[in-house]
Design a protein that fits this description.
Length: 611
């Protein structure tokens, strides 16, 4: 949560920072603030709610500075208010800091600092850092040393950027647990929580590691550990382009990302089939680890939210195909329940952002327990990608809408490829592998054909937009899709929705069925089809309204359901890639009709970097 941008160079930092932080707004939008140094004096301005209000405020002030930091907040400690908005400043108003993460021992530090005479203006954990740095700066008069000494006293996670009007030519950034990237321009440098705000200026970046600090001037930068050991960093090139992070004519990023899926699914597969034998999958990130991957007899998948749903599909697929036992765990539970994991276990961590705190902590725990960790991430260079032993990138491009859509279908695609890859390593190759590859290659066009029928979903949304409850039911590979459909509706339209395996309905939830309860059934012609029809009859008999997702050509479904949306035929394993598309669109259309803020739903943020 929370977005950070910092700038030092020859240009006016203010417009660069404001434009930059707008690109990070998906990380939080409770409040925003900016600080810079003008004529050796620190200025700091804040506003509550979205960045646009800060922009409005700042535009009237005619600020000019070559150094500055800016922040957009997702509240953890203290309500969204001007006082609690970042940047936080020290008692003298010289030092300003922006922070992403949580300082766990802030209470203790605050008590000590207050007894030393420091006066606090906010309820946040972050403010202790401003005062701690002030305390050490007062002792040594050395900004870099003061930041280092302050960080040594901190327990918790942080990505920070700090400036000090007493050393106005230095921007200091540090990381432990929360991401910080330093970007290298021509006579100018940027720091940011991720690359979105900087790619319009430069593509050259270095990613800070945990317990690492960068001291940046407009002429260069140095990196050291918090213990003052110099580190050498590899400059990496960001592959994302600016148009990838624009809305490109769509009303919302979510809609754009839904429509990108024919391409993003293709990109997840691109270059990953062997030229000599197209039925064989090659995954560059796993090269050199074939022996390790061939030998596991147990797999644990850890993830959160939508990524967890993708993991469930992975479980069904891997067990069916490889006959290797798989467990799918919420990362937040896994990390705290002393799981049975050892050197014989392969842990697959799935995360779009690669920054989700619980999943990252799960990865670290798995490694401590000697497991091998395979990361499935979208964001290149993200913490989970770097912490994993090896992995698969999704290549889905930036996902900015808070509701995850294209990452889900890319994650499932990556898991199909992984399954096929391990199958080959274990000689579990059959004719079915080739059929699966063929069917997978057809998916992008099939998704495109579904997207052409957006108006059908719009009509359904119109009919059901006022419902206050929804059930989503599916079986087999489409049970996780039911969960995902319900999550999409909940998070962006604020309608209560539950997803469950269709057969579970009669064990309790069927009591909820009335004529006012729309039930979305994924009733495609797969192995579970006949059973799903039985469940539809049970709902219809109790007056429930049935919206069915069916297979093209299944005309008889129309007699059983109130509405049917048809998707093309594919093999059972791949159906989630198609059945989820109408559910994403339904949630989107209903949210728009209810005038909800689709890209910035209330109380949410894109990546959950706190526990
Ligand atoms: O970045 P991650 O994939 O680790 O994020 C996990 C969840 O926070 C995320 O999928 C969340 O559930 C989405 N908002 C769902 O749309």
């Amino acid at each position: 949560m929370c977005g950070i941008v910092g700038y030092i160079g020859n240009r006016n930092a203010v417009p660069i920072l404001i434009e930059g932080i707008k690109r990070l707004e998906y990380r939080g939008y409770d409040s925003a603030g900016i600080a810079g140094i003008s004529n050796n004096n620190l200025f700091c301005h804040k506003s509550v709610s979205k960045v646009v209000f800060l922009e409005e405020k700042v535009s009237k002030l005619d600020l000019d500075t070559n150094i500055g930091i800016v922040h957009t907040r997702w509240a953890t400690h203290g309500e969204p208010s001007i006082d609690n908005a970042h940047p936080h400043v020290d008692c003298k108003g010289d030092i300003a800091i922006v922070h992403n993460g949580i300082i766990e021992n802030y209470d203790l530090l605050k008590t000590h600092l207050e007894s030393d005479g420091h006066v606090f203006a906010s309820e946040t954990d972050t403010e202790v850092l401003a005062h701690l740095i002030e305390k050490f700066f007062d002792i040594d008069g050395d900004f870099e040393l003061a930041v280092r000494n302050a960080l040594k006293h901190v327990v918790g996670a942080y990505g920070i950027a700090v400036i000090n009007s007493k050393e106005p030519d230095k921007l200091i950034a540090a990381k432990n647990g929360s991401p910080i990237v330093v970007a290298i321009g021509k006579d100018e440098y940027f720091v940011a929580s991720d690359v979105a705000p900087i790619i319009e200026h430069t593509k050259d970046v270095v990613y800070l590691d945990d317990n690492e600090m960068a001291t940046i001037t407009k002429d260069g930068y140095t990196t050291k550990t918090i213990d003052n050991v110099p580190t050498s960093k590899k400059v990496e090139e960001v592959m994302w382009d600016i148009d990838m992070i624009e809305r490109d004519g769509y009303d919302h990023f979510m809609l754009k990302e839904i429509h990108e899926q024919p391409v993003s699914i293709l990109n997840a597969m691109r270059g990953r089939f062997d030229h000599g034998n197209e039925c064989l999958v090659k995954l560059g990130g796993l090269e050199g680890h074939e022996d390790v991957l061939a030998k596991f007899n147990r797999i644990v998948i850890i993830a959160c939210g939508t990524s967890w749903h993708a993991g469930l599909i992975g479980e069904y697929m891997i067990e069916a195909f490889l006959r290797t036992p798989v467990e799918v765990e919420y990362a937040s539970e896994f990390r705290y329940r002393n799981p049975v994991v050892d050197s014989e276990t392969l842990v697959i961590a799935i995360s779009q952002s690669g920054e989700t705190a619980d999943t990252l902590a799960g990865v670290k725990l798995a490694k401590e327990m000697h497991a091998t960790v395979l990361g499935v991430c979208n964001v290149v260079g993200s913490s989970i990608a770097r912490e994993s032993d090896f992995g698969i990138y999704l290549h889905a491009g930036p996902e900015i809408g808070v509701a995850s859509t294209k990452a889900f279908t890319s994650q499932i695609t990556a898991l199909y490829l992984l399954t096929l890859y391990i199958a080959n390593l274990r000689n579990v190759t059959t004719l079915f592998n080739c059929n699966l590859v063929e069917a997978l290659k057809a998916i992008p066009d099939q998704v495109a054909s579904i997207l052409k029928k957006e108006n059908e979903i719009e009509a359904l949304a119109e009919l059901y937009k006022s419902s206050e409850n929804f059930l989503y039911l599916g079986r087999g590979y489409n049970y996780p899709v039911a969960l995902e459909g319900a999550l999409k509706l909940k998070e962006i339209s604020y309608i209560h929705a539950e997803g469950m395996p269709a057969a579970e309905m009669k064990h309790g939830p069927i009591a909820l069925i009335t004529k006012d309860m729309p039930v979305v059934f994924i009733a495609i012609q797969d192995a579970a089809y006949q059973k799903a029809l039985g469940n539809i009859r049970e709902v219809a008999a109790r007056g429930g309204k049935v919206i069915a997702i069916g297979t093209e050509g299944d005309d008889s479904l129309k007699e059983k359901a109130d509405h049917v949306f048809y998707i093309p035929k594919t093999i059972d394993m791949l159906t989630p890639l198609l059945s989820v598309i109408p559910l994403q669109l339904l949630a989107y259309k209903i949210a728009v009709m209810r005038e909800c803020d689709v890209d910035m739903p209330r109380n949410l943020a894109k990546s959950v970097t706190v526990e």
